[in-house]
């Protein structure tokens, strides 16, 4: 390892470890993840000359590595399962089901109705901003073009709208436990 990589390792080693620990919530997995991250850093050290913010670059590598590991584990767990020789449950119970249960669907529908109902208590400009962002899934830039305001204004409207909607939801006594949970 060259001197620059050694200096980066010495400076950011603890930061990367704590980030890995925060992501995995397990010391062994955090150490494994951290090792993968540093292997990638060494592998892509030629890109280091183009990096303006090393900490951000390392954070991105760490987050991407964590996501890749997570996806790989999910994929593996869907198709591989360790089973005893004799099964005392039907094999279909072991097949993963990605669909929502009936109770979950009903709960989701009810929550959606409640939130939409409470959204009507917001000012029209906030309703429209929330709708564009969360329902129509427009980007901030697209919303700013549609509403003929700056991106910063869209951000502040979103922030205020979410805060106000939370206040409205919390003020409803029967919803307070659902909102804070």
TrEMBL record:
Similarity comment text for this entry: Belongs to the sigma-70 factor family. ECF subfamily.
MF terms in GO: DNA binding; sigma factor activity
UniProt feature coiled coil, ranges: none
UniProt cross-references to Pfam families, sorted A to Z: Sigma70_r2 (PF04542), Sigma70_r4_2 (PF08281)
One of the GO BP terms on file: DNA-templated transcription initiation
Domain (RNA polymerase sigma factor 70 region 4 type) ranges: 114-165
Annotated InterPro entries: RNA_pol_sigma-70-like, RNA_pol_sigma-70_dom, RNA_pol_sigma70_r2, RNA_pol_sigma70_r4_t2, RNA_pol_sigma_r2, RNA_pol_sigma_r3/r4-like, WH-like_DNA-bd_sf
Domain of life the protein comes from: Bacteria
Gene3D superfamilies: 1.10.1740.10, Winged helix-like DNA-binding domain superfamily/Winged helix DNA-binding domain (1.10.10.10)
Keywords, ordered alphabetically: Sigma factor, Transcription, Transcription regulation
Domain RNA polymerase sigma-70 region: 9-75
Protein name (record): RNA polymerase sigma-70 factor
């Amino acid at each position: 390892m060259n001197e620059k990589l050694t200096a980066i390792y010495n400076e950011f080693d603890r930061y990367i470890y704590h980030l890995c620990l925060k992501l995995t919530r397990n010391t062994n997995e955090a150490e494994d993840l951290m090792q993968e991250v540093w292997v990638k850093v060494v592998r892509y050290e030629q890109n280091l000359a183009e990096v303006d913010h090393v900490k951000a670059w390392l954070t991105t590598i760490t987050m991407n590595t964590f996501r890749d590991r997570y996806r790989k584990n999910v994929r593996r767990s869907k198709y591989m399962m360790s089973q005893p020789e004799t099964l005392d449950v039907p094999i279909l119970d072991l097949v993963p089901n990605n669909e929502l249960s009936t109770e979950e669907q009903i709960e989701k529908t009810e929550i959606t109705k409640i939130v939409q109902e409470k959204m009507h208590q917001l000012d029209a400009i906030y309703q429209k901003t929330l709708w564009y962002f969360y329902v129509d899934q427009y980007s901030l830039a697209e919303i700013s073009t549609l509403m003929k305001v700056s991106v910063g204004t869209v951000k502040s409207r979103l922030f205020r709208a979410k805060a106000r909607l939370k206040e409205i939801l919390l003020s409803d006594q029967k919803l307070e436990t659902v909102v804070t949970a």
